Amino acid sequence: MKIVQAIKKPNESFVVTDSKKLEEPLVLVFGNRYMLESEHIYDEVKQLFPNGHIVFGTTSGEIIDDNVLDGCVVLTAIEFEKSSILVKRNNVADFKNDDKKLGESLIAEFPKENLKHLFVISEGSTVNGSALIEGLENLKDATFGLSGGLCGDDDRFERTLASYNENPKEGEIIAIGFYGDTLEITSSNYGGWTTFGPERIITKSEGNVLYELDGKPALDLYKTYLGEKANELPKSALLYPLSVKVTEDAEPLVRTILNIDDKENTMTLAGDIPEGARVQLMMSSVDDIANGAFHAAELAMGGRIKSPELALLISCVGRKLVMDQRTEEEIEEVKSVIGDSTVISGFYSYGEMAPFSGQDSCKLHNQTMTLTLFSE
């Protein structure tokens, strides 16, 4: 595996960290939305890697090595020596907001034989991540790993962009399939948040739109808990996500509020919140989040045969808001576990995709650190 990285700062060209020549690399470009709105961004990357498979995604912060950047673009180009990749895309507008159907259509384009892993970069403004994952996993008689994340837009929640081999645009969902017997790919996630306050029952919801808790308007209740911070919604919601427990025995899922509708008195979350589920507010501290990142890395390393050569990190923008000037500590915790020789890239997101530890089925998470580790 050969890897080249580069950083682009505002009003500057890409600064490449390595002079290695790559033939047909996978080029992952994660960056600030304003930077990726440039009409020249695709051409800039293509000049560096004329035969590259170039995937873009907007962020709420860029990760390279153990650094967290803001307002920049980070690029990681990977050339696999014994393995192959296949990249496909769809747009939510072509499926009338039926995200499960979009996922089914996307996975149908991938040959099943020897598919080891699917890594997804999805638009993060409107997608129902739970439905998308359900569609992507609708491939019978196939076992493959699934991880990835929803693009971010800092804490603005205005619009997110992604693309494959073209300038970034709205509504795009990109899936990268990894093939090869020599590939070892593991993924994991962990949060570090704790619940507080009373447990409530979801009495009315539709998909990822929450209407009522205990028969009362959900948004009104939520604003009551937030107090003065309610004036800063939806940004302030990142500090107080919801713990959602679908059944008594199920692992609780963390759900971040992406949008609010004051007129309808509803909240739109990043994934499904079914009626009958129990929810509680959550909160966290800097130390809890850093410890959570350490634990996520331990889970990803568990049982690996080879040391990872590449780590793709997707962490939630809510964690970044809590960590503030200490954000890099969670990346440092990950690096302390996976080792100094592992190349690190990634971004802060509006949602993370990974299975729970010990489980095969992928879930949409919020407020977690998610790792996908590669070696061949």
UniProtKB/TrEMBL annotation:
Span of domain FIST C-domain: 218-356
Top-level taxon in the UniProt lineage: Bacteria
SMART domains given in the database record: FIST, FIST_C
Domain FIST: 24-217
Protein name, entry field: Histidine kinase
Organism the protein comes from: Maribacter spongiicola
Lineage: Bacteria, Pseudomonadati, Bacteroidota, Flavobacteriia, Flavobacteriales
